[in-house]
Amino acid sequence: MLLPQMDDSEFEDFRKLIHESVGISLSLQKKQLLMTRLYRRMYQLGINSYGEYWAHVLNDETGSEMVLLLNAVSTNKTDFFRESDHFTFLKNEVYPHLQKQQTIRIWSCACSSGEEAYTIAMTLLNAFGGVLGGRDAKILATDISTRMLDQAELGRYPVNQLQLIPEVLRNRYCKILPETNGEMFQVSSQLKALIRFRRLNLIQEYPLRTQFDCILCRNVMIYFDRGDQEKLIERLSGYIKPGGYLFVGHSESLIGLQNSLKYVQSSIYQRI
Ligand SMILES: C[S@@+](CC[C@H](N)C(=O)[O-])C[C@H]1O[C@@H](n2cnc3c(N)ncnc32)[C@H](O)[C@@H]1O
Prior knowledge:
The chain is an alpha/beta fold and about 270 residues long.
């Protein structure tokens, strides 16, 4: 693909806008990546210069072009059972305690296309023997990308991802779709019923009043600068119930960030 030129001041305009809107911090080395991602959207619009696209974003008073720009620039890689030791910890250390509670709240706060939230749902249900027994259990799953949230709501994934899901859970909660020639599978409505997908920006005030037993904030703060990481952890900490847990990605850590959480083990923290 032959991309139009982007000069350094145009890069700086987009970099600043993206940073201020969602915290994603792009270095100059990411210029080519940004150009490629923006160009996909520009191509749809028939726009062939980054300056013209910049004006298009700023002139759109509805804000919907900004949503699409953010869809284009976010990195969404995820998987079922990604960083699987977190789900082992949930099964062994967290779910047994939740079994004693009537109300259960878990938040997957950068859920991408939903695999993380569905993994929580299937492991939670499985830990409870497949029935919640009248408990009020809810998983909130949020992301900035509306494109990812649409995929997450759909709950359909390529069959090659089934291999990531343990056989018992696969058989119980996933169904291959014959109308896709067996290429896609669908997660069960029992899992879907547990989850609410919503758009939420992690670097702005949250419209939430709930406190959570667990928050999974994995593989997102790696894109933020230190100041935004610190604010994020401080804000999220206030949404964790005393005794509840925060999970961050394996390549992330709270080392060097001011916080009030107790270190439990690598990438797992607890509110005292
Ligand atoms: C790499 S994915 C991580 C998905 C999942 N948590 C995992 O670990 O597999 C990062 C997600 O963070 C989202 N994201 C980036 N900035 C965000 C923000 N300011 N607020 C909410 N979500 C954001 C992206 O849209 C993307 O889907």
